[in-house]
Amino acid sequence: MITSLGYGMLECEAYTEAVQKLRPDIAIGMGDLLFGHEPGVKRKEVMGDRTLAWMKMLAARMEDQGAGTPTTVLFAPILPIEAEQQSWYLDSLGDELKAMVSGVALYDTGSVDAIPDNLRNLPRLLSGDVSSPQKILNAISLGVDILTIPFLNEVTDAGIALLFSIPASSPSNTEVDLPLGVDMWSSSHSTDLTPIQEECKCYTCTQHHRAYIKHLLDAKEMLGWVLLQIHNLHATDQFFEAIRASIKQGTFEPDRKAFSKRYAAELPAKTGQGPRVRGYQFKSEKGQRKKNPAPYRALGDRKERLAEATLPSPNADAKELELQGFAEMLA
What we know:
- The chain is α/β, with parallel strands linked by helices.
- 37% of the residues lie in helices and 9% in strands.
- The protein has helices at residues 12-22, 41-62, 87-93, 133-141, 151-157, 203-207, 210-218, 222-249, 252-262, 302-308, 318-323, and strands at residues 2-3, 6-7, 26-28, 73-78, 101-106, 124-126, 146-147, 160-162, 181-183.
- A five-stranded parallel beta sheet has the order 3-4-5-6-7, with helices on one face.
- The chain starts with a strand and ends in an 8-residue tail after the last helix.
- The mean pLDDT is 86.
């Protein structure tokens, strides 16, 4: 898990104690999961057994909740492996642990079919496997009730403002593949005094314009990303509010298909440098490029030129400084 001191191993005993003390609304049982690569055959044989042992430990501790303490509901993880390879664990969920389980946690939409029949009426939480609005809609169509949205922070860090909505807007022209967001690093926003989204009611769009946000990003001011996150959170809230209305009206499936046809399949690519990250915010891999650009860089062939150059006068302009090797004019 990520801590303020870097990555560390989380023991089941420590996790169980944290659940007892913090009393979250939902506690997800620890699953024997691997991220970043596929587990081997031998690992798959024991993943279900380990997860079952951890679930029993957590369930036993949660039975000791005292009267008057906030109630924590337990969600059981469904492992992202074949149902046959975790059959003993799944049978136990639907039998001896059924009374304690209030929902299931998925890590892959393909695991929906592995949910035991007598637990299919429980809420389903999907963690991960959601990298675009289209995947959100597809997950909901498969019966997912609660989602984590990791791409929300990623697009904000990339300087992208979200623009999508459902039901998909239908302009009079035949334009398709509308962008899911706008890259605020683009120089086209430098003098644009319009809000990110004309009809948006969020604080960012009602109080500030694109040029100001572009300026904040260029100046590496944290406020730029804060304002983008405010807008993106509001856009996501509106998106889910529209989804609930679509489900209630019985038009979700056609709305989902219309959205996929109208909008681009992927979010805009990152073009600018995000806010400076700290070492404890990610796990470095061998050969991985540095997350933050170096504050200083080698002068290259200008080193010799500078050794021979005379100091510029206090009144030297940018062009003169560049000719002498002391600076570089940027477009």
